[in-house]
């Protein structure tokens, strides 16, 4: 299925409804760039983790239970491609779990509680769309630094479960520099948004993205059946 199959905009659809007439070749080009960037991201992360001697193995806490927000259209569309790659039964299972997760978020938010909820893509502790997992899934864990557009540098602590060696010597050798990776994703994002004429601000959990994708799949199926 391609997004260009979605021919009609329905009132009340998500912010992604403007994509109904999108050119698949634009999306495929961006998806190829995202895949290439993701691969380099993962190997850069592995190098930093190895430098710190960091490993997730044996940890009793699952990072896939944290409520992260995602902001890029290019990652949304790459996740869309990932869900396309699943068989129908698996995909429907993800859609159901995503709706369940959103229901739990609503309950927890109403209670004013922050509770951990497992990502709808996680099955038995493993990511069921590992090759399509989002940027933060690939970068979360090791201490990082990033140069901001104004020239200042921001730093982030690593996983809270560990006592990191944050000596200047260690950080100089190992700290994960996200700057160029973020900059590259930003370039892909800007180009994609310009080509698709997409101007919406995105702040969504994976579960929210998945329910938006569910809507697009549903709508495409409806159009195909007409
Ligand atoms: S997408 Fe995969 S790696 Fe990321 S939180 Fe969900 S299950 Fe975990």
Give the arrangement of secondary structure elements.
Layout: H1 24-52, H2 73-84, H3 88-111, E1 122-123, E2 126-127, H4 135-139, E3 144-147, E4 153-156, H5 168-174, E5 176-177, H6 179-196, H7 206-225
Parallel strand pairs: 3-5
Antiparallel strand pairs: 1-2, 3-4
Helix pairs in contact: 1-2, 1-6, 3-7
Instruction: Give the helices and strands as they follow along the chain.
Output: HHHEEHEEHEHH
**Terminal CA distance:** 16 Å
The ligands bound in this entry are: iron/sulfur cluster
Rounded to an integer in angstroms, the radius of gyration calculated over CA atoms is 19 Å
Shape, please?
globular
Strand tally, please? 5
Count of the domains: 1
Q: Roughly how much helix do the residues carry, as a percent range?
A: 40-55%
Task: Walk across the major sheet and give the strand order.
Answer: 4-3-5
**Largest sheet: number of strands, sense, barrel closure:** 3 strands, mixed
Structural class: mainly alpha
What is the typical, i.e. mean, pLDDT?
A: 90
Strand content: 5-15%
Uncertain segments are 5-9
Number of helices: 7
Please give a structural write-up.
This protein is mostly helical. It has one domain (3-225). It contains seven helices and five strands; from the N terminus they run αααββαββαβαα. It has helices at residues 24-52, 73-84, 88-111, 135-139, 168-174, 179-196, 206-225; strands spanning 122-123, 126-127, 144-147, 153-156, 176-177. Strands 4-3-5 form a three-stranded mixed β-sheet. Strands 1-2 form a two-stranded antiparallel sheet. A hairpin with a 5-residue loop joins strand 3 and strand 4 (153-156). The radius of gyration is 19 Å and the shape is globular.
């Amino acid at each position: 299925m391609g997004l260009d199959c979605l021919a009609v905009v329905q009132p009340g659809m998500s912010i992604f409804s403007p994509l109904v007439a999108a050119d698949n070749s634009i999306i495929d080009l961006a998806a190829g760039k995202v895949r290439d960037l993701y691969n380099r991201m993962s190997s850069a992360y592995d190098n930093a983790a190895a430098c710190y001697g960091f490993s997730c193995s044996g940890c009793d806490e699952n990072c896939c239970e944290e409520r992260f927000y995602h902001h890029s259209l290019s990652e949304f569309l790459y996740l869309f491609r990932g869900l396309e790659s699943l068989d129908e039964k698996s995909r429907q299972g993800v859609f159901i779990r995503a709706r369940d997760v959103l229901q739990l978020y609503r309950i927890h938010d109403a209670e004013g509680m922050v509770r951990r909820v497992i990502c709808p893509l996680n099955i038995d502790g493993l990511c069921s769309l590992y090759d399509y997992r989002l940027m933060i899934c690939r970068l979360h864990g090791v201490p990082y630094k990033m140069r901001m557009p104004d020239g200042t540098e921001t730093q982030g602590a690593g996983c809270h479960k560990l006592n990191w060696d944050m000596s200047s010597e260690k950080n100089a050798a190992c700290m994960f520099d996200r700057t160029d990776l973020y900059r590259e994703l930003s370039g892909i994002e800007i180009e994609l948004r310009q080509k698709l004429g997409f101007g919406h601000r995105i702040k969504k959990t994976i579960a929210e993205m998945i329910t938006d994708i569910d809507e697009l799949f549903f709508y495409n199926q409806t159009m195909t059946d007409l």
